[in-house]
Prior knowledge:
Blueprint lengths: L8 E6 L6 H11 L10 H10 L2 E7 L4 E9 L4 E9 L8 H12 L4 E3 L9 H4 L33
Parallel strand pairs: 4-5
Antiparallel strand pairs: 1-2, 2-3, 3-4
Amino acid sequence: MSGTTEPTWKTERVEGRDLDLDEVLAVYHSSGLGERRPVGDRERMAAMVRQANLVVVARDADGALIGIARSVSDFSYVTYLSDIAVAGPHQRGGVGLALMEETRRQAPDAKVVLLSAPAAVGYYPRVGFTRHDSAWVLSPGQPLSASRPEPAAQPATRP
């Protein structure tokens, strides 16, 4: 006997549009991710889940949603793991890791990129992620700067 037990939950890929939004919102709230997502805007949250093209969920033995990984992927080069949320009582039990493993299994040739929640910055290196220091964010409504780099100086020509 190995001493390990089988999880009491399972992961699977689903279509975001098929999920119950109230169940999804409950996981976001319970996970703490709801503090950094527009959970008060049901339409926007529904669009976020519906329009993600790679959604993996974890459900307990009774079928209740306990975790969700919401991604956008080209399934070839990059998968942007937009959200990973695990209900509070199920955190630190392997659910999040299983969601990431299933996400990766669905797009095995693509690298996985994510922006970490501040409280989880130390977690991702422990599970194999490499820190990337050149990520940039442009928020909705934030204008792009009209300034552009100066063109390179042309070498002087001789008459």
